[in-house]
Amino acid sequence: MPKSSELQPAFAVACRGVTKRFYHYDHRTTSLRERFIRTVLRRPIHIRHARFSLENFNLEVAEGESVALVGANGSGKSTALRLIAGIYPPSEGVVETCGRIAAIIELGVGFNPELTGEENVQIYAAVMGLSRREVASRFDEIVAFADLGDFIREPVKYYSSGMQARLAFSVVVCIEPDILLVDEVLAVGDEEFRQRCEQRLARFRENGGTMIVVTHDLDSVTRLCSRAIWLDDGRIRADGPAAGVVEAYRVG
Amino acid sequence: MTATPTRRDRPLLVSSSKRSRPGDVWRYREFLRSLVVRNLKVKYQRSVLGFVWTLLNPMLTIGVLTLVFTYFIKIKVEHYWAFVFSGYFVWNFMLQMLSSATYTLAEHASLRRSVAFPSEVLVLATAASRLVEFAVEMAIAVLLLVFAHHHGVPASFILLPWLIAIQVLLAIGLAMPIATLSVFYSDVQHAMPILLLMLFYLSPVFYPATLVPDTLRPFYFLNPIAGLLTLFHDVLYSGQWPSATLLAAVTLAAIGSCAIGYLIFNRYKVLFAEIV
User: Fold this and answer.
1) Size of interface A-B (CB pairs under 8 A)
2) N or C: which end of chain B has fewer CB within 10 A?
3) Phi, then psi, of A179 in degrees rounded to 5
4) Of A118, A175, A123, which is closest to residue A149 (Cα–Cα)?
C-alpha cells in the first residue's frame, strides 16, 4: 500500500471492467435434504440462468466530483452503487475506492425498534465504521440535524417512517465521509428538511467531498451534481456534464 | 492523533474487491461493541427482574437433573449437584451459540444488504453477548463450588481463564460454518434442535465421561465438547489439574476449528449477497 507521503491517486472511486452477474433461479435447492436426494439421483441442484446487472462498467470519479447516476428502473444504478459501497464484490473487474465511504441505500435498516433514537444513532454510526471517539464527537450534531426534539429519547418504534428516515439521513450526512453514496432517498422528510439536506450536501461538496447519487428526480441532478452518467440495461450510454446527459436522457 | 485528520491528511485507504481479512473486524470493533450493548439492552431493559429470568432457565434444568440423577437414577457421583454446576453453563453457552448461528445472519439480512461490514462481526457479537452472561453465571457457580463443595479454592481454578478462552474459540469455530450453511439451506435451522439434543446426550453434561466404556471412549472424545466439558469437570468439580494431553488436544481442536470455521465463512461470504 503506498504511503500517504507519496502522490495521492487521481481518483476517489474507480471501477475497471466491472461486471456483475446475478442468478435467476428456475429452481433453487434450499434444503440439505433435497440437495442430498438430488445428488444421489444425479439431478441438477440448481437450475439458473445468469442475468447481467452491469456489463463492462468503467468509471473514474475524481476527488471532489459529484456524479449522478440516472436511468430506467433495473438499469443497474443501485447495483453500481452497492458495488462501490462494497456490499458485494463484482463478478469480474475491480472496484477501487480511496477514503471512507458512507452510503445511504435503505434508510433505517440498522434500527432496532425497541431502542431509543439516541441508542440507534450510536449503532448506526458504528456500523458505518466510526470509532467510539468519532461517534461521540458527532453525536450532538446528528441529533441536532435530525431535529426530532424530545422524540430522540423515545423508542424508534414510536416514530413515523418520515422521522425514521430523517434520523437515518442525519447519521449518514453528519459522518462526513470522503465518499458519499446516496441511492434514491433524497426525497425524504418535508420541504424544510429536504432543503437542509441539500444545503448540507452542498457544504459537503464545498469541503471537497466526493458524491455519487442515484436519483429519478432529474431537476435535483443539475442542482446537486456536476456530472451525470446514463445507465441503460447495465451499460453506460452517456457520461458527461450533468445538464447535457439529463437532456439526452429526457429525450431518449 | 487527537484532531480528526482533514481529508487530505488521511492515509490512503485503497480497497479493492478482495476478500476481507481479520483486520477488517478490528476496524469495526465499535460496531461489535454496539451490537453487544444492543443485545444486552434489548434483552434486559424491559424486564424488571432481568437477569434473574435468564438465570432461571439453566437453574431449573440443573435442579431437575440433580433431582433425577441423585434420587431416581442413582449416578455414583459424590455431590452430584456440584458436578452438574461445573459443566452446565459451559454447555448452555455452546448450545446458544450453535442455535443462534442458524438465524443471526438472516436476522440482519436488511442491514447486510445496505451497509458494507464484515458479516463475521454478527457471529462474534453473539459470542461476546453470551460471554457477558456466562461470566455472571460462572461467577455464581464458582462461588457455590468454593463455599459448598471444596470449602476452599483449589489451585486448579487458575486454569479457568484458559478453559473459557478455549470454550469461546471452539464455539466460534463451530458457529461459523453453521451460520454459513444456514444462509443457503433453510432446513439447518429446523435440524438444529434435534442435533443439539443428541449432542446433549453424547456429551458429559449430566454424567461423567468415565461412565463411557473404554472401547467407545476414543469415538466419544471425537466430540470436542466432550473434551472441553471433561476439562471443566477436572478443574472445577474435582479440583485437580487436568491431563496435559487432553488440555493440549482440546486447545488445538479449538484453535483449529476457529481457523477452519473462519476460512469456510470467508470463502462463502461473497455468495451471501445472492441469497436475498
Assistant:
1) 132
2) N
3) -125, 125
4) A118
Beta carbons of A128 and B186 less than 8 Å apart: no
pTM beyond 0.80, yes or no: yes
Spatial distance between the Cα atoms of A229 and B154, rounded to a whole number of angstroms = 72
Side by side, the strands of the sheet bearing A11-28 are A46-62, A11-28, A92-98, B14-15
Instruction: Specify the residue for cell string 475497471.
Output: A16
Of A18-22, A96-100, A102-106, B32-36, the least confident:
A102-106
A32 and B117: CB-CB below 8 Å? no
Burial of residue A16 (CB within 10 Å: 0-12, 13-18, 19+) is: middle
Contact B275, B184 (CB under 8 A): yes
Distance from CA of B54 to the nearest CA of A (A): 19
Q: Is residue B248 part of a domain?
A: yes
- Residue B156 within any structural domain of the chain: yes
Residue B51 lies in a domain: yes
Query: Nearest Cα to A127, choosing from B34, B10, B265?
Result: B34
pLDDT tens for chain B, 276 residues long, are 333 334 444 444 445 544 455 567 887 888 888 889 888 887 887 666 777 878 888 999 999 999 999 999 988 898 999 999 999 999 999 999 999 999 999 888 888 888 888 899 999 999 999 999 999 999 999 999 999 998 888 999 999 999 999 999 999 999 999 999 999 998 999 999 999 999 999 999 999 999 999 999 999 999 999 999 999 999 999 999 999 999 999 999 999 999 999 999 999 988 887 765
* Full residue range of the structural domain in which residue B218 is found: 35-275
How far apart, in whole angstroms, are the C-alpha atoms of residue A53 and residue A131? Answer: 34
The ipTM is: 0.81
User: Of B46, B49, B54, nearest to B136 (Cα)?
Assistant: B54
The answer to whether residues A152 and B142 touch, using CB atoms and an 8 Å cutoff, is: no
From the list A31, A109, A135, the residue facing B114 with the nearest CB is A109
What confidence score (pLDDT) does residue B46 get? 67
Query: How many folded domains does chain B comprise?
Result: 1
Residues A82/A92, Cβ–Cβ less than 8 Å: no
Q: Is residue B30 part of a domain?
A: no
CA–CA dist B258, B25 (Å, integer): 15
